[in-house]
Amino acid sequence: MRQRRRRNVERVTPDLEEDRGFEDAFQSVGEVLPEVLKKLRLEDRLTLHQIEQTWSNLVGPSVARQARPARLVRSALVIQVLQPSVRYFLETRRTALLQHFQARFGAERIGAIRFVVS
User: Fold this and answer.
1) What does pLDDT average to in each consecutive run of 10 residues of the chain (118 residues)?
2) Given CA atoms 118, 90, 46, 52 in this order, what sign does their dihedral have?
3) What is the spatial distance between Cα 19 and Cα 17, in angstroms, rounded to a whole number?
4) Contact at 8 Å (CB) between 68 and 55?
5) What are phi and psi of 114, to 5 degrees?
6) What pTM value is reported for the model?
7) Dist. CA 85–CA 106, nearest whole Å
């Protein structure tokens, strides 16, 4: 039985040990992941998730309860705000927020910030 299995494996993978180019065929996950995210169009979702993770620390817990990153539309980050007063507060800090996000994610990913009261 073992002999049969060995012959089957040898038939399927002939000279695998001698083929040194096989090792070069592998890539690390870090090399492949950006391409996969781009093909699946998940870059915006990943960026939005990372923004949501740091949002409370950036604006403070009281503002974070009343405003949240909602979506990313054509490199514009849309922040959903519950009250106009919070919108005004965030608009006064728009430049600082934009600079922070551009430094972390790049200016091509976050080009503008819009605030929407809902």
Assistant:
1) 57 54 71 78 85 92 95 93 96 95 91 95
2) negative
3) 6
4) yes
5) -120, 145
6) 0.68
7) 29
